[in-house]
């Protein structure tokens, strides 16, 4: 089903991989890309459960927009192991204006397809989604 605002469909694989991350913790992260010619959001890359945050951020292109989901594990002040699923809308300043517009107009519709997101971040440069930012938003 295409999004009326941007005309972007969401490939079934996007939802299936997200459910695997959420329910089975099969992946640490998923990077999604909009294929403009196909007018749909697809899975570009998945991260193994043992991969860290640096592995994830290195998958995001410096000059292209992406959506991403990251499963962040952390310890609370009470020493309890917890996890938060982050949705990150990566839209670097150096990306094309058209691309930024397409990603911005498709974001809410795409996010609704991924049931279980706990925290949302919008980032235009790496400092806006640094590990310190993730930690502060997780607790």
Attribute tags:
Severin, alpha/beta, 139 residues, six-stranded mixed β-sheet
Describe this structure in words.
This protein has 139 residues and is of the alpha/beta class. It has helices at 12-24, 53-58, 97-113, 131-138; strands spanning 9-10, 29-35, 40-47, 66-75, 81-90, 119-123. The longest helix is centred in the last third of the chain and has 17 residues, at 97-113. The relative contact order is 0.18.
**Second rung of CATH, namely the architecture:** 3-Layer(aba) Sandwich
In the sheet with the most strands, the strands line up as 1-3-2-4-5-6
At the first level of CATH, the class is: Alpha Beta
Q: Compute the gyration radius: what is it?
A: 15 Å
> Mean of residue pLDDT?
93
How many runs of DSSP E, i.e. beta strands?
A: 6
- How large is the share of residues in beta strands? 25-35%
CA-to-CA gap between the ends?
35 Å
| Strand and helix order | EHEEHEEHEH
Number of domains: 1
Q: Can you identify the CATH superfamily?
A: Severin
Please summarize the sheet with the most strands. 6 strands, mixed
Topology:
Layout: E1 9-10, H1 12-24, E2 29-35, E3 40-47, H2 53-58, E4 66-75, E5 81-90, H3 97-113, E6 119-123, H4 131-138
Parallel strand pairs: 1-3, 5-6
Antiparallel strand pairs: 2-3, 2-4, 4-5
Task: Write a concise synopsis of the structure shown.
This protein is an alpha/beta fold. Helix content is 32%, strand content 30%. The chain has a single domain (9-138), classed as 3-Layer(aba) Sandwich (Severin).
């Amino acid at each position: 089903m295409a999004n009326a605002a941007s005309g972007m469909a969401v490939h079934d694989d996007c939802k299936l991989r997200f459910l695997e991350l959420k329910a089975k913790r099969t992946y640490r992260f998923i990077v999604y890309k909009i294929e403009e010619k196909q007018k749909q959001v697809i899975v570009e890359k998945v991260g193994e459960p043992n991969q860290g945050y640096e592995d994830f951020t290195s998958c995001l292109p410096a000059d292209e927009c992406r959506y991403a989901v990251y499963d962040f594990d952390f310890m609370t002040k009470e020493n309890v192991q917890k996890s938060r699923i982050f949705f990150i809308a990566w839209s670097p300043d150096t990306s094309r204006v058209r691309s930024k517009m397409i990603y911005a107009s498709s974001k809410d519709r795409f996010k609704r397809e991924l049931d279980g997101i706990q925290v949302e971040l919008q980032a235009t440069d790496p400092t806006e989604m640094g590990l310190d930012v993730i930690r502060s938003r997780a607790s």
